[in-house]
Design brief:
The protein has 506 residues and is mainly beta. It has two domains: 11-278, Regulatory factor, effector binding domain (Multidrug-efflux Transporter 1 Regulator Bmrr, Chain A, Alpha-Beta Barrel); 298-505, Porin, CATH 2.40.160. Helix content is 10%, strand content 47%. The protein has four helices and 29 strands. Strands 1, 2, 3, 4, 5, 6, 7, 8 and 9 form a nine-stranded antiparallel sheet that branches. Strands 18-20-21-23-24-25-26-29 form an eight-stranded antiparallel beta barrel. The chain has a three-stranded antiparallel sheet with strand order 13-10-17, with no helix packed on it. It is rod-shaped, with a radius of gyration of 35 Å. It starts with 10 loop residues before the first helix and ends with a strand. The relative contact order is 0.12.
Length: 506
């Protein structure tokens, strides 16, 4: 169960969950595979679109791990089931802008119908033609693979026309040596030319390509900052260059002169990433899936009220029939309602499943079990109230899908102490029936925010104890009230119940 928000999800939970989802939804990843920085590893493919949830940021790439951790923590808090491995999306080509202007997003894919709350933002990565490569090596070195992929795109006549996507493919990066870690890099691209003499570099974060030298024209593509294109000629303040559309048509595209600058290299020549000494010093964590802190136990306090409750009664009816001399007389149901307070501790998880233990005290209403008889010369009455202490084992699953809903199955060991009295015109006896039993319940929990929630529970119990009365002459202070066979009357408080309650999580 989730908690006050100084906690974050564990690597074991988040990454094992993502691995399981990737097995179920393999279509989220292109089927092709490749090795980075090798010509045969560069591919142009049609990649499917997907929905994702992310937290946006601005600053050096070394800031991404902390935001990745925060995004995974929010996934836990909002009961969102990630639909794939964690990802990073870069709005500019690394090295093309100062660190202070580098815009990125850190998050994870989600199902199409998922709803999210801030700070997460739900967005769509569109289906597109992408240039793709898989970088094998430390996450922070993927900038070299990006530069190599862009250089290959230049040589093949492709321009970057979208944001850069990195997906971190290792299910548990903590178990993978940095040289063996894998990062998939995808850059939406458009065929523009097979080479040209003069090159331009996109200086704007996003540079629209129009079908005529007029900002009111139709947008044919959008180029990403740092992309190199081959300009055929200049028309006023506009640069003209050949462009091949997705349907294969060859057209002329126009880009504004304010969005580009002349490149120091001809189109088709790679731009080397800045040397390590020129970059902002990275944080100790690598860029890529960060290692979150360990999860702390989750505490849950509950207050419950019964909506329905029943007691089997068992031998109590037999005993009452003997006391009243009326074999057809049974103890009335009385008022079986009760209130309960519970405390639970969740300390372990595997994927969406959580495990915990807890305890509960049931406080019955007066006259839970009640019988009365008026007879010539007086009136007799029996009143009993079952007190129950339960020791729970909890097995919970977060249902996910963006809904803060969970399902919990709880087997229990019950300690029963039924107390009350029998009174007639001639006697007054304090009664008690103690014993043990077991119970099983299922509940749904819905959270309003991160601390408060409601729970609805349906359960059954099997428990009871032998009836005894207060006896000053007994060594124990009580003596059994036996039937004709010499056995104590068995007071059965088994039954079914339904409750509604308020939860507080910490």
């Amino acid at each position: 169960m989730d908690r006050m928000f100084d906690r974050i999800v564990s690597v074991r939970f988040a990454l094992s969950l993502m691995t399981a989802v990737l097995i179920v939804f393999p279509s989220l990843l292109p089927a092709q595979t490749g090795r980075s920085i090798a010509a045969e590893g560069f591919l142009v493919i049609e990649a499917p679109g997907f929905a994702y949830a992310a937290i946006p940021g601005r600053g050096p790439r070394s800031s991404v791990p902390a935001i990745t951790v925060r995004a995974l923590a929010e996934a836990q808090a909002q009961r969102i089931l990630p639909a794939g491995s964690s990802l990073g999306i870069f709005h500019s080509i690394p090295g093309s802008v100062p660190d202070t202007d580098f815009v990125w997003e850190a998050g994870f894919p989600v199902a199409a119908g998922t709803t999210v709350r801030p700070p997460l933002q739900k967005k769509e990565w569109p289906s597109a033609t992408v240039a793709r490569v898989v970088h094998t090596g430390p996450y922070e070195d993927s900038v070299q693979a990006i530069a190599a992929l862009l250089a290959w795109m230049d040589r093949e006549g492709y321009a970057a026309v979208g944001l850069i996507l990195e997906r971190y493919l290792d299910p548990d990066p903590g178990r993978i040596a940095p040289p063996e870690r894998r990062t998939e890099i995808c850059i939406p691209c458009r065929k523009i030319s097979g080479g040209a003499a003069s090159g331009l570099e996109v200086r704007a974060e996003l540079a629209p390509v129009f079908d005529r030298p007029d900002p009111a024209g139709n947008t044919l593509a959008v180029l990403t900052r740092g992309t190199h294109i081959a300009a055929a000629k200049k028309t006023g303040t506009w640069h003209e260059f050949p462009l091949i559309l997705e349907d294969g048509r060859k057209v002329t595209g126009y880009v504004r002169g304010t969005d580009v600058r002349e490149s120091d290299r001809p189109a088709g020549e790679a731009t080397e990433p800045p040397p390590p000494s020129a970059r902002t010093a990275p944080s100790p964590s690598p860029t890529g899936p960060a290692v979150p802190k360990s999860r702390r136990p989750v505490f849950e306090i509950g207050a419950h009220a019964s909506l329905m409750n029943s007691y089997t009664r068992g031998g109590l009816d037999d005993w009452w029939a003997v006391r009243t001399g009326d074999s057809s007389r049974a103890v009335d149901a009385g008022s079986p309602s009760y209130f309960a307070g519970s405390f639970s501790l969740f300390f372990g998880s595997v994927g969406p499943f959580k495990f915990g233990v807890g305890a509960e005290m049931n406080i019955p209403a007066d006259h839970s079990l009640w019988g009365t008889q008026t007879y010539y010369g007086g009136r007799r009455e029996v009143v009993l109230s079952p007190w129950i202490v339960a020791a729970h084992a909890h097995f919970r699953i977060d249902l996910g899908g963006g809904i803060p809903l969970s399902l919990t199955v709880t087997p229990s060991v019950l300690l029963v102490g039924t107390r009350g009295h029998y009174q007639s015109a001639y006697a007054y006896d304090n009664l008690v029936a103690t014993g043990i039993g077991f119970g099983l319940s299922g509940s749904l929990e819905y959270m309003f925010g991160k601390m408060f929630g409601l729970t609805a529970r349906l359960g059954m119990r099997a428990a009871g104890g032998g009836l005894a009365y207060e006896d000053e002459d007994s060594a124990t202070g009580y003596s059994s009230w036996n039937d004709a066979s010499g056995n104590p009357y068995w007071i059965d408080i088994g039954g079914v119940y339904a409750t509604m309650g308020l939860l507080i999580r910490m």
